[in-house]
Design brief:
Length: 239
């Protein structure tokens, strides 16, 4: 039975966690906006560094002491490696990638901090092959955000079944494309216009549809086996 003190401590820890995540979701878009408005995307390596630092802080603050720390890092590294390898493997097919599916599964099973880390680090590391550029910070944020939201929904007891997870994957595909299209518009001359944004959305619609379909397919294939393995590891090692 939980004592009043334990309940209070739990609520306090939860509140602090949510504040850290909220601060991250405010600071990172602010950094992206400054990168565009002040530096015209010419200082994107600095923006990447800022996002990496801000995105890592909530994850490492969520650690407990002891071996759990090392084990959690090891599991997270494996998920990031799977996402990066999957993006390499399907490089020849535009829009057809397992990255979002793996990011979503990481967020659902390992928490919002791990979900954000998987998404942002997968974008950064895989772009060593696909090419780094001003788009990288945006990819890091958007993929990270998808993992973060998945983790938050999991904390609320949602997205436990395959069909709702696949629906979220489809929604995530649309969100990713819509947010990345904002960067496409702004990257032209540093300004955003609705007419140009609608034109970009229309032009990218076929790729967006492929991306949405791929998210659903990969989640159908990967959600059950990966989530079972991750949950088993969590139980066995107390992650």
């Amino acid at each position: 039975m939980n004592t009043p003190k334990t309940v209070i401590n739990t609520k306090s820890a939860s509140a602090k966690r949510m504040l850290r995540l909220l601060a991250m979701c405010i600071l990172i878009p602010t950094s992206l906006a400054l990168g565009v408005m002040l530096w015209n995307d010419r200082q994107y390596p600095l923006v990447i560094l800022i996002i990496t630092i801000i995105g890592n802080i909530p994850f490492f603050l969520s650690f407990e002491r002891g071996q759990i720390k090392t084990r959690r890092i090891a599991v997270l590294a494996v998920m990031i490696a799977l996402a990066v390898a999957g993006r390499f493997l399907f490089a020849a097919i535009p829009g057809f990638k397992p990255v979002t599916a793996i990011v979503v599964i990481s967020g659902l099973c390992l928490g919002p901090e791990a979900g954000f880390m998987t998404g942002s680090m997968s974008a950064l590391l895989s772009n060593i092959y696909f090419g780094q550029g001003p788009w990288t910070p945006f990819q890091m944020f958007v993929w990270g955000l998808i993992g973060l939201i998945a983790g938050l929904l999991s904390m609320r007891g949602q997205l436990t079944k395959t069909i709702p997870v696949c629906l979220y994957g489809a929604l995530a595909g649309g969100i990713y494309s819509l947010l990345m299209d904002i960067w496409t518009v702004v990257s032209v001359d540093g300004t955003f216009t609705l007419a140009r944004y609608l034109a970009v959305i229309t032009a990218s619609l076929p790729t967006t549809v492929i991306y949405i379909i791929s998210n659903v397919l990969f989640l159908l294939l990967l959600f059950q086996p990966l989530s079972k393995k991750l949950n088993r590891l969590k139980t066995k090692y107390g992650i």
